[in-house]
């Protein structure tokens, strides 16, 4: 069976029109821009996630103390990490704050150079220890009260900050801007 010459010639000339190519390019551009917008700045997304996590575990620790009536606990802060602490009695005159051994409330190491912590209490910035033992910054009582203050999580070298305001009655609030 032979194929007529005109049919072969029509298939050879058939291709994409300029309009079809432009429509495909526009669609690829739209998909690429949506992908870029959804990814956003990785540091900003990580800052938001870590702020929500810290506020969540602070609320969890407060609620756990309310339910169990356990002894006083505290949140210890360092520029690059945080942990919930418990007061351990070593002997009659010696007490020491030690980090909890717990998946949620234990030591949380922040990624080096991505997020840093700062703490302010009664309008004054508190120094955070770099290394050594843990110090209590936010004390949690078994009736729901907490040491009031503001924890700031920031990205070094960028104007990205988020804040956690802690109220004396035990409220925990995440803020985008520093409260006045």
UniProtKB/TrEMBL annotation:
It is found in: Membrane. It is a single-pass membrane protein. Keywords: Membrane, Methylation, Transmembrane, Transmembrane helix. PROSITE patterns: PROKAR_NTER_METHYL. The keyword Transmembrane applies. Its main location: membrane. It holds the Pfam family N_methyl. InterPro entries: N_methyl_site (IPR012902), Pilin-like (IPR045584), T2SS_protein-GspH (IPR002416). This is Type II secretion system protein H. It comes from Halopseudomonas salina.
């Amino acid at each position: 069976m032979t194929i007529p010459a005109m049919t072969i010639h029509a298939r050879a000339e058939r291709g994409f029109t300029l309009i079809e190519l432009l429509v495909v390019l526009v669609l690829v551009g739209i998909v690429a821009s949506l992908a870029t917008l959804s990814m956003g700045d990785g540091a900003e997304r990580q800052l938001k996630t870590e702020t929500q996590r810290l506020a969540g575990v602070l609320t969890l620790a407060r609620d756990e103390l309310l339910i169990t009536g356990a002894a006083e606990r505290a949140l210890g802060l360092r520029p690059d990490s945080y942990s919930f602490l418990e007061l351990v009695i070593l002997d009659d005159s010696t007490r020491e704050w030690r980090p909890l051994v717990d998946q949620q409330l234990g030591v949380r190491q922040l990624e080096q150079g991505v997020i840093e912590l700062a703490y302010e209490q009664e309008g004054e910035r508190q120094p955070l220890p770099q290394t050594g033992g843990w110090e209590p910054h936010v004390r949690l009582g078994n009736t729901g009260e907490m040491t009031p203050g503001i924890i700031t999580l920031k990205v070094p070298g960028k104007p990205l900050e988020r804040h956690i305001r802690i109220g004396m009655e035990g409220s925990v609030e995440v803020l985008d801007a520093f409260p006045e």
